[in-house]
Amino acid sequence: MYIALAALAAVALYIVFVYNGLVKSRQMAEEAWSGIDVQLKRRADLIPNLIETVKGYATHEKSTLEEVVALRNKAQAVPTGDVAGRAAVEGMLGQALGRIVALAEAYPELKANENFLELQRSLETVEGEIQMSRRYYNGAARDLNVKVESFPSNLIAGQFGFAKKPYFEIANEADRAVPSVRF
User: Fold this and answer.
1) Cross-referenced Gene3D superfamilies, in alphabetical order (predicted)?
2) What is the pLDDT of residues 158-171, one digit of tens each?
3) How big is the chain by its Cα radius of gyration, in Å?
4) 161 by DSSP, 3-state: which?
């Protein structure tokens, strides 16, 4: 009888241990997504200043500037939990921002503008932070996904409603390409 109770207690402790590990992994993934969200917000906040600075020098590049503004607004409208949707829009926005930064090559006075240079440095810093946040999130999502799919933790994950997290990645191969700028 004592052996059966000890075995039952061991199973219960194992379930608690696995459940707590799943909760920790889910929280890590959610915290990591929050980090991405913060960096994307920082980038979105930089965009209006960048656009205003470029407008004064590149007035006939109106379509490029309007595209960036439209994509920024679209990115802001994506629901918080929609990782794939947000990744797709942010990929297009990153490519459009690359075209704006490339405009500086065609406008020497813009390239020398102190505000533009500061905004460009800030944007480069934020882009680096986004990359680090994305890698951190993808690692946290991977850890959770392994636990959700691995035996025997998948039995406990299924019983308590734990689900896999999607990766934050660029779905469209064209978004991975180096932006081309034509004048």
Assistant:
1) LemA-like domain (1.20.1440.20)
2) 999 999 999 988 66
3) 23
4) coil
CA separation, residue 86 to residues 165, 168, 175 (Å): 14, 8, 13
**pLDDT attached to residue 173:** 56
Q: C-alpha angle with apex 27: 176 to 148, nearest 5 degrees?
A: 80
Please give the model's pTM, rounded to 2 decimal places. Answer: 0.72
**Domain 2-176: assigned CATH number:** 1.20.1440.20
Residue range 31-57, pLDDT digits in tens: 999 999 899 888 888 888 888 877 777
- Here the tokens at position 36 are 């991405």
Where would I find the H helices in the chain? 2-55, 62-77, 83-106, 108-111, 114-149, 153-159, 173-176
- Domain boundaries in the chain? 2-176
